[in-house]
Amino acid sequence: MQMEVLIAYTLTVLALMSTPGPSHLLMLSNSASNGFRRSLATAAGDLTANMLQMLAAGLGLSALIMAAPKAFIIIKIAGVLYLVWLGIQMIRKSFSQRQAEHTAPRTSLKTLWLQGFITSATNPKAVVFFAALFPQFIASGAPFWPQFLILSAAYIIIDGIFLSFYGFTASRLREFTASNGAKWIDRLGGVGILIAAVLLGLKSMSRP
Fold it and tell me: What is the pTM of this model?
């Protein structure tokens, strides 16, 4: 793969990630609640889902999803409902658990990983997104899979950096602002996820 193609792809991905998504907002909340190191489990869950989605795109499963509109709609609805539930839980946690912050048990690494994985995996359009993005940077005259793996690895690295940045920023902010700052991170993150869920739901209804 030519270096200029990889640079153009990297700039494109950076532009697409310029606005934080639900996974980034979740990373903010979990880092504020559980610390940066433990929140890396959330990032790992998100990236695991991304790898599976990219693999599905590479194997042509995106076409299968598009060919089964009813199943596609069900998955989209499930993803929206999960985001609503997650946003509400984050807001509730900011009002209740923070009051007993020093005695309440921390969220398990398994739960943190599952939250990251489910938040990303319940977005079926991600498969279609990868299926639409990658062909723009793949040369038809060269072997497909080596190029696909390079693009996939680059995306994982970039997204991992973004997730780590959000998590590290939230943990530092918590240290400077103590519990009140952590509460507002949870509340703003929860509201952000709810807004994302509403927008995704409206888009799903307008374009089934």
Answer: 0.71
